[in-house]
Records
---
Amino acid sequence: MTSKKFLSNKKTTQQTISISPSLKEWIVRYVSVNNKKNPKDERFKSISAFYNHVLENIMELFRKGKTLDDFERVEDKEVKDFFDDFSFNATVPLYEMTTENDRFAPFSFKNFTRFLLFYLKFLKKNFSVKNYDELQILFDKIRTRVNPSPISKEMSLEIFPDEKRNLATATLEFIGKQRNLHFENCKFFAAVFGILGVKITDFIYSEKDFYCRIDFIETDLLFREGLDRKERVELLKENVHFIINYNRVLEDNDDKHLWMKLAEDKMLFINFKSKQTYNKWLKIVENDLQIYGQRDDFLGKILLYFEKLHWIRIHSGEKDYSFQLEPVLESDNIQSKWLIDYLSKYAKISYTDGIYYLKNITVGTSN
């Protein structure tokens, strides 16, 4: 390939090309935005200057051995530097598996505080008030980083300014490649929109096609100068709830997501349908405690098991085992008897003022 250094720099030759109207509009918008940001930058002085700079540098990259395929991997440096501080290489199948149980778990702002606030600062730095062209360009830079990838197939953003209402609406479409990671990313977008000041108005999701569409509208928070942390967090929670509400939980084929949420409520308890089922699960727990646990901690762990079923409230310290039945179990003569009968195999039980005390602990195997 002939190097540019052997050619004339004088711009006397014209080159006519045919491009789509959308591409032309995109280029004009990009040059206009960057010319306003950097009026002295010769590269954005005109459309012609921009074309010349781009083509010249592309040919130089080709001379160095780059190919057209390499452009799919080009990433904006500022975007790369920002995300690199919060990212790491991960094994997709492993994280696809581990995110399954978090499918309908809300985002904790406390755990994401630093990242979300840095993200807010980064976003506000890269586009100015009501400048949706800058916002579109920023999105295109971010999309280059995450799409395509092992977890993302396609992303698109359309912004619709409404001059009458002085508010813009937008639609984000996102197609993923992994069921759980795709859903986590939907939650993540909802959280980021909230911290930025954008309110979700509709969410369309297809688990079969790994597709989501999020419609949203800007609020006055979007361009507000102050941090307004409390309001942004509330909008974040509202947006994420739009994704993980109980209407969607009940549509999921896996009942464990509902059960996980129910388990957080201490006013609920597990009620076994039969003594056989009760014995089956007790035996599973008991076997693991005897194989992997400490002998002198067996009874304490058994009490923890019943406490996690919301059957009892433990009152004991390290050396003394005592507990109180939950009121609902006290009224259940059958299941409360199952509990006391089982504990009687390993300890002498006394009862005073509503509290059970366990003494003379011996560890064995129940039948």
---
Amino acid sequence: MDTKHYKIVMDQVSDKIFGQRITLTYVNDFRESIRKEHKDRGIFKISKINCHISKKSYYEMANSSTGLQDLGVEMLPKRESHYNYEKLNGFLASLKKDPDKKYVIIRFDKDPGRKNINIIDIKYIDKDGEVIPEEEVKSMMTNSALKKMNNEYGRSGKLDLSVGYRPFKWSEIARLSVAGIKLEDERLRPYLKCLE
């Protein structure tokens, strides 16, 4: 998506749509996760995601444990956010260091019973537009990327906070549907073919 699309969402989407479901298709260059000998295949990951806009911020959700509050413990952010929240408590945001870099921030709950971010479909394609099976992609990935994918980073991998967030670069969103608005980026349209 480009700045024209961003302005449409900023101007036309109400601040009263908390809880509504949104769908986005995200295209990201996967070469960083691929070992050197396979980088020339030019692999991209295309993800179709369904989620909802959360009303609360990450810290409000994380601080909802009354046990800690009853003990008088105050939870503070470890560091200042990297983002300027521009709409809907951070649903639309820009990078503080570079305000031209825009993001959609999805807050999620990892409890399967309350999960509010769902991956509908994931496809991997090469630079020629050919779909590559996930197992083949895994065989080409770096060890660290595989560990991250499988959440295998020792003790830290076992920590499963009940809430988190995931920023999606605005420029890598190929399709977005929110509050009755449907947008598609012509520049990224060729990547969408593998999902149809």
---
Amino acid sequence: MSTFPEIESELRRKEIMEEMEAIRLEEEAVKGRTLLDKNLELLGLWMVSAGEKLRRRYHSSQESSSVKLANKVA
């Protein structure tokens, strides 16, 4: 029975090491942004901006063409 405390302490040490690794990874994920993360964020912002410009451009042209059509019918 003398080996039981040694096994228990070794298991506890492994649990502590796993918790420390999880905390380290969590901190790294929160603070660290890689170059890829930054570039993907910029790409996403550009895509949203371009989409909004396209929507404004084509939405207004569709509105004006439907108004013209309504005026022709009337």
---
Amino acid sequence: MFKGVNNGFQLIRASIQIFKKHPILIAPIFIVWVVYAVLLIYYKWHFPWENYNTTGQLIFAYLFFLAISFLLTFSSSVLLELIQQKEIGQEFNFNKALSDTFDKNLAHIIALSIVWSIIWFLLVLLKVILRGSSDNDDDKNAENVAKTLAGVETFSWITLSIDLILKGIRMVVFLILPAVAWENYGIRKSINRGFQVLSERRSEFATGFTLSLGTEFILFLPPSIMFYLSAKEIVAFNDLAWYFCIIYIGFAWSFIIYLEQMFAAELYLWQMQYENDCNQARKEGELQPKFSDVVRPSIIDEVPDILLLKK
């Protein structure tokens, strides 16, 4: 158990170190956040909900989750293709990563995003039903936009539990995608493969989940302090301050998604290395190594790990 915790910590730390060397990797995710922010603001303050019955409203609400699920899985696929380029001895080529995502992965991404979006939508719908009316007033101003994008709501154990489940599901999706991008599996086999890695690496996954959650808490602490000071009328922030808060929220959200994606990619690649070492040990009649004894492959370094594993 302790080794699993240590392994998970190593994966999170490696993801942060990669970000320091290649901060551009967060760019596709930040673009997704911009689209998410625009759609969320439009849906909350500008969409003509009164023109549709309950069924129509639910359909349009679901389309929002479908769009964001697709964009997140698409951006993750592009990131994984970029990683694969480096891990087979090539240089970063964004156009090729984009082309490979369209040519090889698009159908699987669509299928996975549909499954994910349905689960996401139903859980959020359950949270809305349990939560009741929204905490934010209906006025559209910079502060309320920031609160909406930050997901500010009254605390309850039920809604917190649903949020944690949603985060866990998202990380599982990111654990499934390497099977699509790196091993060219079909959608059903990719899902099974992702859950197999999850089942065998439960301790590492749980540690990564917890550390990512802690990082999320720290990153969103500054906006939370602003919201508290404003609500208590201790400080009156002007619109410029709230605009900076909105931009900060965008980068914080993007970094958390990046961290989850890179953690899943590192864990998956480590599992591939472990299975390769086990196969090699069986061929040589030796005892299979423990997972913690296998040297963790480092993503985006000078060693083409995926190329070596496929030989």
